């Protein structure tokens, strides 16, 4: 990874770039703990539909969500290139299933465009923006929003204790 | 000024010493002027005084100074132990406790004037004169000596010593060594100086006094003391300072301007006292290190990893053997050997870490004697309070939770259980009530009982009360057995006391007590006979982190039921299941048991309908429910892990555990499951 490199120009961000249903997305590298291969996921009943279940990450129980389901995108086959990206957002460690992780890219801040109201069926509220790099379009996600907004309400809805 | 670490060491010590004071003052109250207790108290007060003075907590220092003065007089037999004196002392201790809270930043402010005044009233003739003869000398005691010739005295010093000798004082070299584990060297050194100055005058020290006060010395330092005391007494007094490991006293004899050091006759007596002091010390100081509980948790996780890797290694050995067969020679055997050794080590490691998390229940129990004494006084009751088994050890998490419920139960017993002395005599009972708090092990549980020989509780009255309060209807009440009726007091909103006292109503908050106990997977039970007394039994797991569980299979997934809630497992024929208003039930030994399928609760596919079904019978309090599962896999010790904040509280699940092969299995939350099924309706609909 490019983490060990010298001074990064403050005018650019480093992004972990991954694929989801044929599209290219990016998230800020600072949020990424590690990237692991797919492993057996224990389903947890009565949680929101996009929560795939939990895994054992070196003795810690980590919830894993399916980003495709999260955005209601067409589901893809799990392949040998599928990965779980372990991120740390809002103090919680969470895994996200993606179709594949390709690289770490440097994205100059001035190349980030504001997102259109809707892109590939994803609402602009969940996006940081769009970056065009060597003729590729990378959609930059806003993890906080994705993981906590609407999810929280949905999680709560499920979590209501039947007294 | 002082680091957080130093302050926290100081606070811990303070807590410990306040406890020592509490215990010993109780002893004084019981047995009058026990010398041993007085000694302990004096020592504890002295330590607090010294360290709080160093830390700059003046209020505390002056208060403990007063306490110390009182005890000095009591030690000398000038002041007898009396009720009012003990009360005042307790008041002083409570003030100390508040001062401690003040230090840790709780928003309280204390005025110690009143307490100090009360303490002084007992002191009669003002403060006692300082013990030991002090040579008059205008010099500052802790003056900086001039450059020191290692091991030697300078001419100036010799002059001072000669002068003192003319007045009948002697000079001693005193070597003081602190324990290697000592964390507050400067404080201890200050105390040593304090003690020395009570006996005479320190005219020299190596290293310099300033360095010593700053803690800039290795394990020890030496001083020259001018005093009229005898060396044994000097040694003994210095040994009372905490964490002093060794004291050597040797007299300085000046012959023809030369210093001749001569060991003071170390007769059998001196040796004995030193040994006694040593033994005393060994008992008191177990070598300990403070460790963040978080670190222990991390260690525990790592051990879990090891166990899992060992399982993998086993698997690999099998595959390896299958592939290379006999061609592999001893390699498979070696691998198996490594794997089993690894398993053993991991198991031992786990056990040791578990033990590191355990604390003696004394941590909680020690608070109670004082509380019982105060309460009994307030209520004008006479009580023998017996505590047994405080060496029993529990996981620290459990210890943290168990305190409040116990306080509640003990208060209840005193307030509503044990009758006043006159009433007891009328009833033909001994005047003094007995309240017994006991902890003991039973298999891998700990049992805590709170037992009183007071009024007891009347099931009939409880039934009537519950109906009157509208908690249950009279029909249900009639059907209740006596033990069931006793359990009514755990219902929220139940209280048998018409006038709630300022302490606690028996029943006020009993539901809270039960909730606390439930939180830590405990079970609370109660036996009572009117007129004879009440015994409350709390059964707790030794640790929160590990439980025994019944593992079951559903589809191809495993679930764990905590064994504490499993009443039994039965296997039933499909045709035995009856329908009552869409609910499935079966008859077990003549009683109706509502059934529910785990596959329905967790929206899972069950395997095909079979004609034999496995049922896990779960019990919470008096409620029972049967859960149909695909397969019973047996019992297992599991380590409980939370599902994390992100998922929050998932209905019917209390967490997850990691199995030997690294897979995650979910743990069923029996309480919320039983709640969800609405057992009562099913039961009453069926009957």
Keywords, separated by commas or semicolons:
heterodimer, A: 163 residues, mainly beta, OB fold (Dihydrolipoamide Acetyltransferase, E2P), 3 helices, 47% strand, globular, disordered N terminus, B: 687 residues, alpha+beta, six-stranded mixed β-sheet, 45% helix, 24% strand, flat, disordered C terminus
Lay out the secondary structure.
The complex is a heterodimer of chains A (163) and B (687).
Chain A: E1 12-20, E2 23-28, E3 32-37, E4 51-57, E5 60-66, H1 67-70, E6 83-89, E7 92-98, E8 100-108, E9 112-113, E10 118-119, E11 122-123, E12 127-133, E13 136-141, H2 143-148, H3 151-159
Parallel strand pairs in A: 2-13, 5-7
Antiparallel strand pairs in A: 1-2, 1-8, 3-6, 4-5, 6-7, 9-12, 10-11, 12-13
Chain B: H1 4-31, H2 35-55, H3 58-75, H4 83-103, H5 113-122, H6 155-166, E1 170-178, H7 185-199, E2 200-206, H8 209-214, E3 220-227, H9 231-239, E4 244-255, E5 258-263, H10 268-284, H11 293-324, H12 331-356, E6 358-360, H13 362-365, H14 368-379, E7 383-388, E8 393-395, H15 396-417, H16 421-426, E9 433-442, E10 445-452, H17 459-468, H18 474-479, H19 482-486, H20 510-519, E11 523-529, E12 533-541, E13 546-554, E14 557-562, E15 566-573, E16 578-580, E17 583-588, E18 591-597, H21 598-601, E19 612-620, E20 623-629, E21 631-639, E22 653-658, E23 664-668, H22 670-677, H23 679-686
Parallel strand pairs in B: 7-9, 14-23, 18-20
Antiparallel strand pairs in B: 1-3, 1-4, 2-3, 4-5, 6-8, 9-10, 10-12, 11-12, 13-14, 13-21, 15-19, 16-17, 17-18, 19-20, 22-23
